[in-house]
Amino acid sequence: MAASPQSIDDVAAGLRSVGYLPGESTALVSFLAAKLGKPILVEGPAGVGKTELARALSTYLGRGLVRLQCYEGLDEAKALYEWNYRKQLLRIQAEAEGAGWQEVQDDIFGEEFLLERPLMSAIAAEEPVVLLIDEIDKTDQEFEAMLLELLSDFQISIPELGRFEARTRPIVLLTSNNTRELTEALKRRCLYLWLDYPQLEHELAIVKLHTPDLDDAIARKLVEIIAMVRELDLKKPPSIAESIDWARALLLLGADDIDNEVFVQTMSVIVKHRTDLDVVAERVGVKLSEPVRAASAGQ
Ligand SMILES: Nc1ncnc2c1ncn2[C@@H]1O[C@H](COP(=O)(O)OP(=O)(O)O)[C@@H](O)[C@H]1O
Ligand SMILES: [Mg+2]
Q1: Which residue from 52, 53, 210 has its CB within 8 A of the most atoms of ligand 1, so it is best to mutate?
Q2: pLDDT score recorded for residue 291
Q3: What pLDDT does residue 297 have?
Q4: Which parts of the chain register pLDDT below 50?
Q5: How many other C-beta atoms can be found within 10 angstroms of the C-beta atom of residue 184?
Q6: Which site from 142, 217, 220, 254 is most exposed, i.e. has the minimal number of CB atoms within 10 Å?
Q7: Confidence (pLDDT) at 1
Q8: Binding site membership of 50 for ligand 1 (Cβ less than 6 Å)
């Protein structure tokens, strides 16, 4: 069933009901996007819930999810549409002897011989979908320009076929890990949502949602330690994804506390660079061997 949110609270409750705990601005921006029909550009470090937001919105709104995973060298043929050469060839072979080139051409450049790629599928869909353009920062600026055209006109021009107009308007989410600056033109067209590592209580709620069986005290200690680790100058600080993985690992191992020993045993779940491991072992591991941690008491 397709849902149509009437307020920011509606969106917040809707997202929660499908297992996504939105921050305030997430619910606000999602509501505006649904109402204004503008794309959302979601930026932030890896593992803070950018991709998951698109999934959650599609489930909550009862819309299909069309996903375009971006990568270096992604081109129109993989993103928009492509001619189905094999099928065209077969048709040419099957064509009666003596058919003129014009007839053949009219025949093989019809919609039947088109392979829809994600962007085209999203606007060709009979029912409106959520379109996720994931990690747009991995493509180049040319691709961005092409996308801009699509996002402003909601049509695709196919030289052999003419204009293809959107049947339905998708809700569009673009995500970026911020590895390169996106163009002003793209930003202008989008609503902007910056997702960062969450506040302690928010992350605690997310961890509990994903591992309801984990002891409360351990869950709290876990997010406190994660926050401490993020303070260090690391190559790759742990994200929500790592917090959840760590919680699952601790649950599996039946840990009843995170002391120094447990920490050293399991810290490779949250830090994944050789040099980071050394820093973390030294700075956090040592603190955990001290009898009482003052910082955890005050929260
Ligand atoms: N607000 C949230 N509520 C529930 N789960 C979340 C939330 N944010 C992140 N997660 C979880 O964290 C993990 C990483 O999220 P993901 O969307 O893959 O990160 P990103 O796309 O930003 O790299 C996923 O397992 C996701 O379910
Ligand atoms: Mg992602």
Answers
A1: 52
A2: 60
A3: 46
A4: 293, 296-299
A5: 8
A6: 254
A7: 60
A8: yes
